[in-house]
């Protein structure tokens, strides 16, 4: 009886522990090179447990006092869309009051590793410094179903799309 229970535990545990998120690709797209350019944008694997994402955008027209970000998350299998998440965030308003619960959740996944972490105006280049995939993992592993995902965020300043940041990831 005990042995059977042990076996059961052993066979279940690895599955539970392996439920995780893997970043497959990160792409930063300049939509307006007169407004911003990306100095770098990459994923790095240090070892099996430590992987991170870093990016830096040089801002060419400062200050920034008006931003909107559109987030789209899609889970795809062949041509069918299985999971859909869309969010529009007024950046300056959000940084001031943090009252949008969904936006706050998305922000928690990367904001603490970014210098975006203050209210408007922004008078400097924007970077995300070594965002550990494990950090994102902890926040999203319980809320999304297994599958292959695509997240597209479009960054507008003064209502004009300036950049897109696209992440492909797999939850298994
Ligand atoms: C992975 O690299 C990090 C940073 O260098 C280190 O702290 C950690 O111990 C490493 N983990 C393994 C399993 O080697
Ligand atoms: C910025 O980040 C620091 C450290 O993570 C935190 O203590 C602080 O409250 C944040 N500032 C704002 C304006 O959110
Ligand atoms: C990201 O979304 C925008 C619309 O918000 C769209 O114009 C653009 O083509 C998308 N980019 C990618 C790489 O899918």
Describe the protein's architecture and organization.
This protein has one domain (2-171): Ganglioside M2 Activator Protein, Chain: A (Distorted Sandwich), CATH 2.70.220. Helix content is 23%, strand content 47%. The protein has helices spanning 2-18, 91-97, 101-108, 133-140; strands at residues 21-30, 36-45, 51-59, 67-77, 80-90, 126-132, 147-157, 160-171. It has a 5-stranded antiparallel β-sheet. Strands 2-3-6 form a 3-stranded antiparallel β-sheet. It is globular and about 40 Å long. It starts with a helix and ends with a strand. One 2-acetamido-2-deoxy-beta-D-glucopyranose binds at residues 70, 152, 154, 164, 166.
Brief rundown of the structure:
The protein contains 4 helices and 8 strands; from the N terminus they run αβββββααβαββ. By secondary structure, it is an alpha+beta fold. It has a single domain, classed as Ganglioside M2 Activator Protein, Chain: A.
């Amino acid at each position: 009886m005990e042995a059977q229970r042990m076996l059961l535990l052993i066979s279940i545990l690895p599955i539970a522990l392996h439920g995780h998120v893997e970043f497959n690709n990160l792409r930063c797209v300049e939509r307006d090179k007169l407004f911003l350019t990306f100095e770098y944008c990459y994923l790095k694997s240090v070892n099996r447990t430590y992987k991170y994402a870093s990016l830096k955008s040089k801002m060419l027209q400062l200050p920034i006092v008006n931003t909107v970000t559109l987030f789209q998350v899609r889970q795809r299998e062949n041509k069918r869309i299985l999971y859909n998440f869309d969010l529009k965030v007024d950046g300056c308003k959000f940084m001031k009051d943090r009252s949008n619960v969904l936006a706050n959740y998305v922000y928690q996944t990367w904001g603490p590793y970014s210098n975006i972490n203050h209210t408007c105006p922004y008078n400097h280049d924007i970077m995300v410094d070594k965002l550990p995939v494990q950090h994102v993992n902890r926040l999203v592993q319980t809320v999304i179903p297994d599958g292959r995902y695509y997240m597209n965020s479009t960054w507008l300043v003064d209502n004009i799309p300036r950049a897109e940041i696209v992440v492909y990831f797999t939850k298994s």
